[in-house]
Amino acid sequence: MEQDTPYSPRERAAVNQVREAVVWASETLEFSHQEVGQALGGASPRTVARWRGGEQRPHPPAVVAAETLLGLSQALDAVFPDDPDRMHAWLHEPVPGLGHRTPLRAIVEGEARDVLTLLANVDAGAFT
Amino acid sequence: MWERFGDTARGGGTNAVSMPRSILTSLTMEGARAEWTHLAESAGSAMGARDLVSLVVKVEPVLDLTQPDAYQQTARSAGVTAHPAFHSRLADVPYDHCHALAAEARRERFTALLVPSAARDGDTNLVIYFDIVAPRLVELDNGPDRIPLR
């Protein structure tokens, strides 16, 4: 069994990162495991459940995607501090800078980095 | 000098974390407002209430990329082909091109850049890099104006 093989420190960090991203996407974005799997580069709900339990090593693309999701978590906190209602309203509204998709749709379609860039620009006031 | 989102104590409108640290300003209030409007329209309701503030800036050396000769020379040094829309419609110029120019200017140790505004044709923005190791001069003070933007 895979979980019987000890994780190296690097693998443990990857497992924890993906698990944290799965929990955040499930609880804060209210994604199903199927949607989380799509956001993490294409994984089945069963695999996502195993990642959430720390029972399976994530593949490298999922680790990268998880890092982006966790960055997105921080960016949302920065742009919507102590205002979850406003944050959720924005996540569900069509946004011109995302091709008039909702941020949630963009994330599920694997484009969380575009959402992150948009929020970083808003937070920083960067000229676009 | 107009800067959109804050003041000198807050750091104001700076580049995103993945970019060199800078303060992004416009030479006119109208230019700064156009930049804010462009970003606000792109971001939807994520853009909350902000203030447009004036700044008093002393900075050197400044690379003036609104001048065709300086632009052509910087593009050559950066190894990129001059873009025909750079001075007429910057919104049509790819980000990579602008980033290459900025990287070259920083390599040549300029502290600030004058560049055309992508949000308002004919206007000019001043990008101030405050992370340059040894700028000859960067002085920023709050100006007298603070205008709420909604």
Can you describe this structure?
The complex is a heterodimer of chains A (128) and B (150). Chain A is mainly alpha-helical and 128 residues long. Chain A has seven helices and no strands. Chain A has helices at residues 9-27, 33-39, 45-52, 60-79, 84-91, 103-108, 112-124. The longest helix of chain A has 20 residues, at 60-79. The N and C termini of chain A lie far apart (50 Å). In chain A, 38% of the residues are buried. With 150 residues, chain B is of the alpha+beta class. Chain B is 26% helix and 30% strand. Chain B has helices at residues 29-43, 68-78, 95-107; strands at 2-3, 22-26, 50-60, 62-64, 112-116, 124-129, 137-149. A seven-stranded mixed beta sheet of chain B has the order 4-5-6-2-1-3-7. The longest helix of chain B has 15 residues, at 29-43. The model of chain B has no long low-confidence stretch (mean pLDDT 84).
Describe the secondary-structure layout.
The complex is a heterodimer of chains A (128) and B (150).
Chain A: H1 9-27, H2 33-39, H3 45-52, H4 60-79, H5 84-91, H6 103-108, H7 112-124
Helix pairs in contact in A: 1-4, 2-3, 4-7
Chain B: E1 2-3, E2 22-26, H1 29-43, E3 50-60, E4 62-64, H2 68-78, H3 95-107, E5 112-116, E6 124-129, E7 137-149
Parallel strand pairs in B: 4-5
Antiparallel strand pairs in B: 1-2, 1-3, 2-6, 3-7, 5-6
Helix pairs in contact in B: 2-3
The SSE string of chain A, one letter per element, is HHHHHHH
Total beta-strand segments of chain B: 7
Rg from alpha-carbon coordinates of chain A = 15 Å
Cα-atom Rg of chain B, whole angstroms?
15 Å
Strand fraction of chain B: 25-35%
Helical content class of chain A:
55-70%
Q: What structural class do the secondary elements of chain A suggest?
A: mainly alpha
Largest interface, counted by CB within 8 Å of the partner chain's CB = A-B, 22 and 28 residues
Biggest sheet of chain A: strands, sense, closure? none
* Structural shape of chain A: globular
End-to-end CA span of chain B: 20 Å
Quaternary state of this entry equals heterodimer
Please state the average pLDDT score of chain A: 91
Order of helices and strands of chain B: EEHEEHHEEE
- Count of DSSP-assigned helices of chain A: 7
* C-alpha end-to-end distance of chain A: 50 Å
Shape of chain B: globular
Strand adjacency order, main sheet of chain B: 4-5-6-2-1-3-7
The overall average pLDDT of chain B, rounded, is 84
